[in-house]
Amino acid sequence: MEVEELPSSANESQQQKFNLSVDSEHKATEFRLFSITKPHMRAFHLSWVSFFSCFVSSFAIPPLIPIIRDNLNLTATDIGNAGVASVSGAVFARIAMGTACDLFGPRFASASLILLTSPAVYLTSIISSPTSFLLVRFFTGFSLSTFVSTQFWISSMFSASVVGSANGLSGGWGNVGGGAIQLIMPLVFSLIRDISATKFTAWRITFFVPAIFQVLTAFSVLILGQDMPNGNFNRLKKSGEQPKDEFSRVLYHGITNYRGWILALTYGYCFGVELTIDNIIAEYFYDRFDLKLHTAGMIAASFGLANIFSRPAGGFISDAVGKRFGMRGRLWALWLCQTLGGVFCIILGLVGSLSVSIVVMIIFSVFVQAACGLTFGVVPFVSRRSLGVISGMVGGGGNVGAVLTQLIFFKGSTFRKEKGITLMGVMIIICTLPLFSIYFPQWGGMFFGPSSSKNVSEEDYYLAEWNLMEKDKGFHHASLKFAENCTSERGTKFNTSTIPSHEITLQNH
């Protein structure tokens, strides 16, 4: 009787320490959107706002391209090269960011990168040539790597049952910056120009707005945030609660997990496509339909602003199908959503009516952005030990997809933009097919369930990342708790008679 009271008292203690219900890792098992309580919900809001600021800075130039290209005498090739540069810098930076999160914590890694890239945003105001234009876009684009720290931070704060929703909301609302800035920059530019400046001076002054915003969010993350439910990385490492992991081992278990590479390819043609559209869509509508700058910006903004609900919807869908059908449901939902995104992308390039193009673009944006949320509904389960590396690989895949797509279809004048958009849709459909090959031995894959002959459990899968010496030192305890909290990925149809008795006991508690 006394033994049964222990879990109850432990829960009471946890509720006193945390304002949200938590699991055995102290990760939140519920999500309260309008709460700012520390550490879980405060981390959520700091993560999406800081990522939002980086998106704002990275895509502050595209809505003013028609003005900037006249001022600097930019050619279509100059603009295309700079667009590629804006997303290429973050390819390796995202992998590095993932490793930094594993070793130093998401708070320090995120704030450091935001502060390091903010000077490039300020320097945009003094560029005077195609070369300097390309360079500021390249270095500003590094800040998009904060997406990795955002997803790592959220995955460290929220449990398996809600992590897809939390990741979808944080990533989606951050991505909204790419749409919001399409509205903000033309408005701020018009205001400054109307006050007293010429248009070639006004656009330069306008860039102080995103630069200041970016710096403020970095200090907010450092001062107000917390790395993990139980404290910051430095304190946890000093106390021994967070083992000092080896870089080589973390990296090894990340890059040797083939599931991370497939998700990186998939993400290259949902988030990578989103980055590509953010770079070209305002100019596309401006040139093809002969619109005013502000009108083209408003239409372009609707693509990015759809992230307010579309990417979060992907996360919610991932969690919902995960509860019913397990990991297999998450994978099927991702494939279906992203394939439909590819279909509507093809249609967008084929239609010639302004009104129809806008409608198709919005439908396309919903599917391709929801696919992003669905992708990161799967990512947290690929690896516990190398979560940051996997997040970085997948996030970097998004940038690789954007680079390749812009190099192939939107660099110079090889293809008309509408033709490039159609071909990009075909690429989306093709590059989503490898999802069929993802298989988790403890949960199965899209076509096959878990192997009954091997009888692999969640504990077997996640503890395989630790050797005997590391287990003797207790480094695997966090992975063990994570495995216990991931049994929900079996789905409600799973036959509990095949679950080891010690796991049933844990679940009942």
TrEMBL record:
Instruction: Specify whether Transmembrane helix is a keyword of the entry.
Output: yes
Q: Which InterPro entries match?
A: MFS, MFS_dom, MFS_trans_sf, NO3_transporter
User: What is the membrane topology here?
Assistant: Multi-pass membrane protein
The Polar residues compositionally biased stretches are 8-20
List all membrane-crossing ranges: 48-67, 108-127, 134-154, 174-193, 205-225, 331-352, 358-382, 389-409, 421-440
Q: Which GO terms describe its biological process?
A: nitrate assimilation
GO cellular component term of the entry, any: membrane
- SUPFAM superfamilies from the entry? MFS general substrate transporter
Which parts of this chain are annotated as the region Disordered?
1-20
Q: Which UniProt keywords apply?
A: Membrane, Nitrate assimilation, Transmembrane, Transmembrane helix
Instruction: Spell out the molecular function terms from Gene Ontology.
Output: nitrate transmembrane transporter activity
Please name the Gene3D superfamilies in this protein's record: MFS general substrate transporter like domains
> Where, per UniProt, does this protein localize?
Endomembrane system
| Limits of the Major facilitator superfamily (MFS) profile domain | 43-437
Question: Does the record bear Membrane in its keywords?
Answer: yes
Q: Could you say which protein family the record assigns here?
A: Belongs to the major facilitator superfamily. Nitrate/nitrite porter (TC 2.A.1.8) family.
Name of this protein = Major facilitator superfamily (MFS) profile domain-containing protein
